[in-house]
Amino acid sequence: MRIGVCTLHLRLSENNSLKGKRRIVKSIKDRVRSKFNVSIAEIGAQDKWQWATLGVACVSSDAAFTNSVLSKIVDFVNEMHTAELVDYEIEIQ
């Protein structure tokens, strides 16, 4: 069994309230969850209006497949243009 974890650091530059941030983060989480069937949650920067940190987890029997899914998620979030992807890390265990 291989477990992959991806941490996404996002900047919401046009946002000016926590309510707006919640709306954007919820949209990203819902779209990623439905398209890729992975677990995703906000894991950091919860009190900052213009920053969000999301954690994504994927489990499979193949490390290459896990890495591929997480890489596709990074590309998908980047192409959504709802938030700027500043940085990301992928770990496979």
In short:
With 93 residues, this protein is of the alpha+beta class. It has helices at residues 18-36, 63-80, and strands spanning 2-11, 39-44, 51-60, 84-92. The protein has a four-stranded antiparallel sheet with strand order 2-3-1-4, with helices on one face.
Please state how the strands of the largest beta sheet are arranged side by side: 2-3-1-4
Q: Using the CA coordinates, give the radius of gyration.
A: 13 Å
Described by strand count, sense and barrel closure, the largest sheet is: 4 strands, antiparallel
The name CATH uses for the topology is Alpha-Beta Plaits
Please identify, by name, the CATH architecture. 2-Layer Sandwich
Name of the level-1 CATH class:
Alpha Beta
Distance between the termini: 9 Å
Q: Pick out the low-confidence regions.
A: none
Provide structural commentary:
It is a single chain. The chain is about 40% helix and about 40% strand. It has one domain: 2-Layer Sandwich (Alpha-Beta Plaits). It is built from two helices and four strands; from the N terminus they run βαββαβ. The protein is an alpha+beta fold and about 90 residues long. Strands 2-3-1-4 form a four-stranded antiparallel β-sheet, covered by helices on one side.
Topology (elements, then pairings):
Layout: E1 2-11, H1 18-36, E2 39-44, E3 51-60, H2 63-80, E4 84-92
Structural features:
Alpha-Beta Plaits; about 90 residues; alpha+beta; four-stranded antiparallel beta sheet; elongated; about 40% strand; single chain
